[in-house]
Amino acid sequence: MTPVIDEAVSLKPWNTFGVDARAARFTEVADDAGLIAALAYATAQRLPVHLLGGGSNILLLGDVPGLVIRMASRGRRLLETQGSRVMVEAEAGEPWHEFVCWTLAQGLGGMENLSLIPGTVGAAPMQNVGAYGVEVKDVFAGLTALDRHTGELQDFTLADCRFGYRDSLFKQQPGRWVILRVRFWLDREAPLHLEYGPVRNRLAEQGITVPTPKAVSEAICQIRREKLPDPAVLGNAGSFFKNPVVPQALAQALTQQWPGMVSYPQPDGQVKLAAGWLIEQAGWKGHRRGDAGVHKDQALVLVNHGAATGAQILALARDIQADIHARFGVTLEMEPNLLPGA
Questions:
Q1: pLDDT in tens, 59-101
Q2: CATH architecture, range 6-71
Q3: Architecture of domain 235-339
Q4: Where are the extended beta strands (E) located within the chain?
Q5: Which residues are catalytic?
Q6: Span 76-187: which CATH code?
């Protein structure tokens, strides 16, 4: 099988920041055979390989050398039933939100809190994406990935993936694994996760006293659309910084100085702080520097007002990091991957 390789391809349609950078060579793969052929081509041509999913978690710093492979595999299926529990599987190129909607249409609960997260199924385990009290690891059943070191397929269990807060084995070993398909355990009688006040409040406003997974999904979609800008309208990658986890002593000291500081105690005794609150208190909310800026309604979201380069967005991000560290003694970690790396 010979892959179709295009040259000097604009990646603007393939990254949600809308940064206009070019791939030296570009191909889309729709199945395992296409991926293997593309990797073989890159090896023969001695080209570095960069994998691309939905482009919702990358910041392009310039033109990308080598071969960019966009994962475009599609497919979703029911695999196994155990009482009310059902295992489902989706190919890596499936759009995440469409897949969540499909699971709800099957009468399956568990993924409703993860509605409207941008990206693809294959990228979700890499970041262990999460929202409103649920993470991928909470419904994860397994995945199949290609080991680029050996060329072999490997199945991963929950423990194998080493999931952490926006972290996984696949993020810790960049470039080695290509996730091909992911499996999830869902449930026709799954308990709802309504720990977050805004979700409960939205359901109450709608007069819903006995919510269904679909109702929770719709409420979360409404909240996300109100809080976060649509990448099709204003380029962004969602939350740009992770919520920092700090020692309890530092959190207590900050709370004394900033009584309104938003914080969440963690099981290990540490405390998670709200990065958006820190950025807003520092005065960055709505800041604009050329076409790179911080969203006017959500300080955690960096945006491209039209023609910002990735380097300009990164420079703004690093200035925010430096300011937050100087003010609060807290280090903010960026969520998006930098491509090419910096």
A1: 999 999 999 999 999 999 999 999 999 999 999 999 999 999 9
A2: 2-Layer Sandwich (3.30)
A3: Alpha-Beta Complex (3.90)
A4: 6-10, 22-29, 49-52, 58-60, 64-71, 76-82, 85-91, 130-131, 134-135, 140-147, 153-156, 177-187, 235-239, 245-246, 263-265, 271-273, 288-289, 292-294, 301-304, 337-339
A5: 166, 239, 335
A6: 3.30.465.10
